[in-house]
Amino acid sequence: MANDGAPWYCDAAARSLILRRYLPWLAGLSLVWEIAQLPLYTIWNDGRPAYIAFAVVHCTAGDVLIGGAALAAALVITQAPALAAWRWRRIALINAAIATSYTAFSEWMNTVALRSWEYSELMPRVPLGNIEIGLSPLAQWLLIPPLALWLALRRSTVR
Question: Are the beta carbons of 30 and 144 closer than 8 angstroms?
Fold first, then answer.
């Protein structure tokens, strides 16, 4: 029985939706995205198959952590109550904004500051001040978390 006055983290239905539906959808969609965007990075041409596979798994796990943390932050920011009273659009927008902001920083950190990876010539880029950030990793966070939330809710009794 849901207690609409309780915060989201005290609601078993909210925890179940996040852990059993949202995060698995987020992981699956992120895995597909990571594989699809491989040609946009130099690793596609320069990396060995085992390293490419490791990178895909590593990046997908990171995506799940980013997506889970961004959703938790969105729920805290919106002061979300029990699942039945969530403001879905607001939560999805804040979730996407947080994840996209983090990703912009991470892409800059790894492509400019640390030079951990590089974009291939195929990567479309977005100018942000004096730097360029890959469009694909930014688009990922504008599309995947809201889609994962929608898919998680699709067969849920709460909407």
Answer: yes
Helix (H) or strand (E) holding 128: strand 125-128
- 84 to 137, 155, 159: CA distances (angstroms): 32, 14, 7
d(CA 140, CA 138): 5
Smallest Cα–Cα separation from 63: which of 103, 17, 93?
A: 103
- Please choose, from the candidates 142, 121, 125, the residue with its C-alpha nearest in 3D space to the C-alpha of residue 39: 121
pLDDT tens, 88-101? Answer: 999 999 999 999 99
- Taking the whole predicted model, whether its pTM rises above 0.85 is answered as yes
Q: Is the dihedral of CA 46, 51, 57, 58 positive or negative?
A: negative
Report how far apart, in Å, the C-alpha atoms of 74 and of each of 2, 89, 92 are. Answer: 20, 11, 8
List pLDDT tens digits, range 40-68: 999 999 999 999 999 999 999 999 999 99
Task: Tell me the Cα Rg of the chain.
Answer: 17
